[in-house]
Design a protein that fits this description.
eight-stranded antiparallel β-barrel; DUF306_Meta_HslJ; HslJ-like_sf; 2 domains; 4 helices; DUF4377 domain-containing protein; DUF4377; disordered C terminus; Lipocalin
Length: 272
């Protein structure tokens, strides 16, 4: 059963029960724990109103992600990073007024950011894991409903931390120009990157030298029209099935946040 059929089955199965809040539907679900929420990256599957119709402003970008760390949550994948403190009490999730970074993007993506904030809006939400089991789709599904009966459905993907351990945090400046470089697979277009170092007060204290990077950064797309500074989580993956400490490790690079971006040939910067 694919994820779409899984979602539809869950919604139809629960639609015969009494409504939870103001929604015309109710899904069968169980309470989630803080540990369960934090073990996954939650990717948006669908956004619907109280009647099950698609929510306006959520169709512009399907890359929305929800992450939990301790007692804070963060929504990314749109234009800005949106975060808030939260508390769980059974199937109730209490959200404080969300805070957002202040970058400007295309109007439809900005409208999606506003829709996310309006959905949470410092209120009590109804949240839980759907009671659906399917061997072909072991990823959990998280249902979040606000008091207007609007709902967001998220699919959980295990976090890199739960798979590989704690990451190293680095800051990279990415040049808008690429560079041809040689790899084991022949000539490719490499990113030009250099590491940025900040002190405890967030002041830039040192800049590394430019170098070529032939790998990929999960959750990020190269934009030749922008110069960007990224905060990255770097995970070390040791070779499986060996106790040899000298065996070469592999590294996984994941975007945590774009903290600075500027247009090419422009002195106007947009900061975090």
């Amino acid at each position: 059963m694919n994820i779409k059929k899984l979602v539809v089955t869950a919604l139809i199965a629960g639609s015969l029960a009494a409504c939870a809040h103001t929604s015309d539907r109710k899904v069968n679900m169980r309470a989630a724990s803080v540990q369960q929420l934090g073990a996954y990256n939650w990717q948006l599957v669908e956004a619907t109103d109280r009647h099950g119709r698609p929510l306006a402003n959520f169709a512009a970008n399907s890359a929305l992600k929800l992450n939990f760390a301790g007692q804070r949550l963060n929504v990314s994948g749109g234009c800005n990073s949106i975060g808030s403190a939260y508390q769980l009490s059974g199937q109730d999730m209490y959200i404080q007024a969300p805070m957002s970074t202040m970058m400007a993007c295309a109007p439809d993506v900005m409208a999606q950011d506003a829709a996310v904030i309006a959905f949470m809006n410092g209120q009590k939400l109804h949240a839980g894991l759907l009671n659906v089991e399917d061997a072909q789709n072991p990823q959990p599904l998280l249902w979040i409903e606000n008091q207007r009966g609007q709902s967001l459905l998220w699919r959980g993907v295990p976090t890199a931390t739960s798979q590989y351990g704690q990451p190293t945090v680095v800051f990279w400046e990415i040049s808008p120009q690429t560079q041809t470089c040689q790899t084991d697979n022949g000539a490719v277009q490499c990113l030009k990157v250099r590491e940025i170092f900040y002190n405890d007060q967030g002041v830039k204290v040192k800049t590394g030298v430019w170098r070529n990077f032939a790998g990929t950064i999960d959750g990020w797309q190269f934009n030749p029209a922008e110069n960007q500074v990224l905060r990255l989580n770097v995970y070390e993956v040791k070779p499986a099935g060996t106790a040899d400490d000298t065996a070469a490790s592999q590294y996984i690079y994941k975007l945590d946040q774009i903290i600075e971006r500027s247009e090419v040939n422009s002195t106007k910067h947009k900061h975090k």
